[in-house]
Each structure stands twice: as C-alpha cells, then as structure tokens.
Amino acid sequence: MVVDELFDLVSYRIHPEPHIRLDHERCQACTHRACTFVCPARCYTWSEERGRVEFAYETCLECGTCLLLCDQGALDWHYPHGGYGVRFRLT
Amino acid sequence: MNDRGDFDAIVVGAGPAGTTAALTLAQKGRRVALLERGESPGSKNMFGGMMAYCPTPERLLPDFWEQAPWERAVTKRVLTVVGEASSTSVTFHADASAERALTGFTLYRPLFDRWYAQQAEKQGVTLLCGCRVAGLLVRDGAVRGVNLGSPGDDLEAPIIIACDGTLSLLAQEAGLHAGFKPSQLALGIRALYRLSEAEIDDRFGLTGREGATHEVLGCTDGIRGGGYVYTQTETLSVGLVMHLDSLKQRGLAPYDLLDRFVASPAVAPLLRGSRLVEYSAHLLPEGGIGMVPRLSTAGLLLAGDAAGLCYTNGLNQEGMNLAMTSGMIAAEVTDEALTAADLSAARLGAYQERLKQSFVLRDMTTFRRAVDFMHHDRLFEAYPRVVGTLMEKIYRSDGQPKQKIGKLGREALRDVLPLRRVIGDLIEGGRAFLW
Fold first, then answer.
1. What is the pTM of this model?
2. Contact A3 B40 (CB under 8 A)
3. In this predicted complex, what is the ipTM?
4. What is the CATH number of the domain that holds A15?
5. What is the pLDDT of residues B262-276, one digit of tens each?
C-alpha cells in the first residue's frame, strides 16, 4: 500500500490561520459528502461521534476539488497566504 | 522594487502563461510586475506530464530549448488499454534524430518555472514571490489593480493579465464566468518515484536524453479518465487524471485508485526498485472549447488554464503550449492597447479574435467533438474490456479451431455493448477524430 506513505511525503509551510473555512450548518444539508472521499489530501472526514464532516486545512494540496464539489456553499475558500501552504521543491 | 502604481501591467501567476506574458511585455519596454503566490515560481506546481514542443518561447528567447532545464525529450509514446486479464499497447517511437516538432519535453516544473521566471527578470520583469492576490480593484467599471490581502495593500496598473490557474478566482471576480463545473474539470494526482537515470533508460528502452510517456486506459474502475507514467531524468511521474463529476459519482477515493494503479501488472514492473518521494494533486480544464469563457473585460485579460485553454483528445494532451501562446498574444494585445491608451472591453476583445486565428483556439475547435466524445463512460470501462477480451481470444491457443476476428469481436461485445451502440460510437468517434 502506497496510500499511507503518500501523505507523509508532502512538504508544507503551515500558516496559523486556515485558508478554507467550513460552515458546519450548511454542510449538514449535504447528502453525498463527496469531499470525504474525493479530496485527494483526505482533509475531510466524517465523524460518527459528532455527526458531521470534520475539516483540517493543514494538509491541503490546494487543488480546489472541494470547492467544485461542495454544492451547499459551505466553504469559504481561499488560497493560503503568499508563501504558505504546500510546496513542491524536490530537486 | 518600483514605486507602487509605477507598472504598466500586472501579471498574476508565474506559470508558463504568466511568465510568457510578462516577458513579452518587458521586451516591448513595458514595466511589468509578475506576482506569484508560491515562495518561488513552480513551488505550487505538480505537473507531471509532457510539454508538446512549441515554438512560442523561442520567439522570445531564441535558444530557449537549448537553455531550458527540461528533463527528457520524449520520442516514445505508449498507449495501453487494460483488459481483464491482459493489456494491449500501441507504441509510437520517433527516431532520436527526428525533428523537434515530433517530440515534447518532460519537465520538473519547480525547476523549469523558476528558470523561466529568472529569464523574464533578466529582461526587466519585476517578480514578486509569496504574493497572493486577494482580489481585484475595480474603478469606473474597469479593473485597475489588485489587492494583496489587507485593506489598502494594493498594487495598481492600467491592465491585469490573470494567469492564476484552473480555479481562476480572478476571472470569476471579474464576472467572466461563474466558476467551472465538475464535468469540465479533471483531478490529476501524481506520485513521484525516484529511479536512476541508467535504470530508466534501460527499462524504457531510451538513450541519451530520450524520454517516454505511457498512457493507460481502463485502469480507473469505470471513472472517466486514465493513468500515466512519464519519465523525467531521474524520476517517474505516475498518476491518474479523472473527470471530477465521474469520480464523485463513482464514490471512490483517488488515492485508493492510485494504489491499485501502481500495483497493476501494466505499471508495477516499471516501478520496481524505485522510491516514492512526492505526492501532489491539481485540477485541470478538460471541458474543451465549450468551457472557454469570454477572455477579457475592461482592464483584464485571461490566459492559460485560467482561460480554460487546455484539452485532451485522447492522444494529445495540450496545456503548456496553449498557456505560453495565449500569454504571448495577451501581452501583444496589451501592449497595443497601452499604446492606444484604450483599455476598454471593446478594444481588448481583439485578444479573443487573435487567439481564434492562432493554433490555440483553432485546435480546441477542431477537437471540440473529441472532447465531448471523451465524456462517454463506456470508453473507460466497456471498451477497454472488449479490447482485452478480443485480444485474449485472438492469441488464445487451446487446441480448439480458431475463428476470424469479426466473429471474435462480436463475441467480445456480447453482454457488454450492443452492436448498434458500437456503430453509433464509430460514427461519433469518426466525426470526432477522422473527418
């Protein structure tokens, strides 16, 4: 399985302020929760205990998939501040 | 740094479209700011493909392809269709001595984009990295600058060229479109593997700086899309590109599909002994000419992915060459508009007309039906299965009498696709690709 390794190989410079905010109230109206399986960075997870989608911005790859698939308008979506976020710089 | 407001133009995004636009303007003597949100150009880029050879950058930097840090010149292109118990490939191999137009270049974009932006800087472009554009400044119905995050932190110029990538938040803010739809975009994910240069040469049958691309159909569990393995100098880009609406509908996680892809018989032997070193994901435009929005408004032009200028017809995957060419044409129109002191929507409309005459919009128009054709689910599940079954029947040798291919073909289609549908697809596919 390469899946578990994949996520450990990404380099980030994390800004203390989230660049994407999830409005949990709006999120509750969703019936497909596509973000929980289509987000390639696994930023969205369904929490049985809390009965809601949980979101962590730190490992975001900034692709925009969630923004495109969220049809509830539950995301306040921005790119991270300049110089922050994911960085690909392998040489 | 220049005083703020001292620029003739601001280009947002130091990818191939933006850097080309900025470089073109600088060569015409314009003062240009090139804004990049990453810590350096290319640091946000996960491109793992091939840039088809394109003469555009040579018009700006005559020895571009001699100097640019490309990885390998692709001479070998392999298309593989995966069936249930086999895979079938077609290989195109240009002679190493073939003219450049038959090849393309694999690139590691964090290096390539940085180098390209440095060339632009040498010609006078002011490159500002770590600089995220938060919004547009609009005055009297025209875009007049950008805001960099906090109130009053503005940068002004008479014209903006937005090369801010697929999501194109600036195009949306400028009212040029209301956001692309999931059916118009594909999610690309990539795992980067390290392998020695000599091992890659041996494994893919390459010499010198030759490169190979492998594209794989039928490996996405019925999701519209495909897999790829591209050779860089000492790394392999391995991944999947899948239509976003189809991925959502199928309910599968992209990394789980990647996991299966790298372990599949068509791919695993290519990766043997290599080391996984990086993972990335990005969206790319795949809606064809139908998703290309109006490309300008007063004070603003769009180029590259931000303009939806990217397509695949199944055989060609074009994006960077369209980005560079659209960036150059956007800059030429900008330069003329600045000279005429007319940055109105009507004047800048010349950009769209100019692009229609170039290969950029002509190619996208030529393949408009191919792009639609690529949105049929059966191309990615039923047909690969049929091809696999047919080839297995052709090569099967079990002491039973053999049959002609037509009969085997009908058997392979049975219970998978009705003949009427196949004939319909042949006609539709013919109109898309053949005539």
1. 0.95
2. no
3. 0.96
4. 3.30.70.20
5. 999 999 999 999 999
